[in-house]
């Protein structure tokens, strides 16, 4: 890949997704573009750049962002967040709601990838006592990965991260062509809504505030200004007293925000704000 081609791809990706690809990402970009060259039958990156510059390249931009963004995820990743959800966020919410109008506990998994994160939330919420009414919104920029998330089918290795008793309760074993795969059962699937959303484009289409927002392992791609903008936007969607969970390598220390740090990677929107 020529310098000018890498620069072009970098700027297009930044413009479309605000993912900032440093010079250290050149190898990665080159490997990922290989997939798009094969899919589009183009001989080299130069031809691919010309395709992106042509009219009607809109769909290819989506494919490009898809191969560039990393979808790596797994069930119960950074498990302290799920413990905190069960032991702190839910009991506090239940206490606040006591005697009031029954409001569902709402969670937003804002870069949900292939669904392991929102389904880990679902498994956690399904297990709380006393039971509560809850709903999860799950969004991602990649339509391909969202289709996988909505299908909710995982192989044995992926499901091995889930404690066996919870696999028995919440997953169906596949048979025939699905032998070796597991599907999240309908009662959990029905309580998770998947939607396509670019976190950096406009205001998210939600009216009700969330008790918890997960925004994990996605901010690392964005520059500081973009991170600040994003955290502000997420904070506006939190209910007072609600929590924002970020990835453990994504401290908000260097950016301006109005949230209170509770623990590393856990922030709370103050009451009265
Ligand atoms: C590394 S995965 C993290 C998945 C999950 N949150 C976790 O921590 O395991 C990052 C996800 O962010 C998504 N993503 C990247 N840029 C995005 C944007 N601008 N808006 C929404 N999602 C984005 C990618 O498609 C990918 O699925």
Care to describe what's here?
It is built from eleven helices and ten strands. It is of the alpha/beta class. A seven-stranded mixed beta sheet has the order 6-2-1-7-8-10-9. A three-stranded antiparallel beta sheet has the order 3-5-4. β9 and β10 (266-268) form a beta hairpin. The chain binds S-adenosylmethionine. Residues 17, 19, 69-73, 77, 111, 113, 117, 140-142, 145, 197-200, 216-218, 247 line the site of S-adenosylmethionine.
How are the SSEs placed, and which strands pair?
Elements (H helix, E strand, L loop, with lengths): L2 H15 L8 H15 L4 H9 L4 H11 L11 H18 L7 E5 L6 H11 L7 E7 L2 H9 L1 E3 H4 L4 H7 E3 L7 E4 L1 H4 L2 E5 L13 E6 L8 H13 L1 E9 L13 E4 L2 E3 L5
Parallel strand pairs: 1-2, 1-7, 2-6, 7-8
Antiparallel strand pairs: 3-5, 4-5, 8-10, 9-10
Bound molecules: S-adenosylmethionine.
CATH architecture of the largest domain: 3-Layer(aba) Sandwich
Q: Number of folding domains?
A: 2
The assigned structural class equals alpha/beta
Poorly predicted tracts of residues: none
Gross morphology is globular
Count the E strands: 10
Biggest sheet layout? 7 strands, mixed
And the CATH topology of the largest domain? Rossmann fold
Number of helices: 11
| CATH class label of the largest domain | Alpha Beta
Order of helices and strands: HHHHHEHEHEHHEEHEEHEEE
Bound molecules: S-adenosylmethionine
| Name of the CATH superfamily of the largest domain | Vaccinia Virus protein VP39
Distance between the termini: 49 Å
Strand order of the largest sheet: 6-2-1-7-8-10-9
Q: Can you give the helix content as a percent range?
A: 40-55%
Q: Radius of gyration over alpha carbons?
A: 20 Å
Estimate the mean pLDDT confidence. Answer: 93
Strand composition percent: 15-25%
């Amino acid at each position: 890949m020529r310098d000018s081609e890498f620069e072009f791809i970098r700027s297009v990706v930044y413009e479309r997704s605000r993912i900032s690809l440093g010079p250290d990402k050149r190898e990665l970009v080159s490997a990922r573009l290989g997939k798009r060259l094969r899919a589009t039958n183009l001989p080299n990156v130069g031809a691919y750049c010309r395709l992106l510059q042509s009219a009607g390249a809109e769909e290819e931009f989506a494919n490009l962002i898809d191969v560039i963004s990393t979808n790596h995820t797994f069930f119960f990743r950074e498990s302290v967040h799920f413990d905190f959800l069960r032991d702190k966020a839910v009991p506090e919410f239940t206490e606040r709601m006591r005697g009031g109008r029954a409001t569902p506990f709402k969670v937003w998994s804002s870069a949900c990838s292939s669904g392991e994160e929102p389904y880990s939330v679902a498994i956690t919420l399904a297990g709380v006592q006393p039971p509560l009414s809850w709903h999860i919104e799950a969004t991602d920029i990649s339509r391909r990965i969202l289709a996988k998330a909505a299908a909710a089918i995982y192989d044995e290795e992926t499901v091995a991260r889930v404690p066996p008793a919870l696999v028995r309760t919440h997953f169906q074993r596949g048979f025939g062509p699905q032998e070796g795969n597991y599907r999240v059962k309908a009662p959990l699937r029905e309580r998770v809504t998947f939607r396509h959303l670019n976190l950096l484009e406009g205001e998210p289409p939600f009216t009700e505030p969330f008790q918890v927002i997960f925004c994990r392992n996605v901010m690392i791609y964005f520059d500081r200004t973009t991170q600040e903008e994003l955290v502000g936007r997420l904070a506006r969607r939190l209910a007072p007293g609600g929590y924002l969970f970020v990835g453990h390598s994504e401290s908000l220390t260097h950016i301006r925000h109005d949230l209170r740090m509770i623990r590393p990677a856990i922030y709370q929107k103050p009451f009265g704000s």
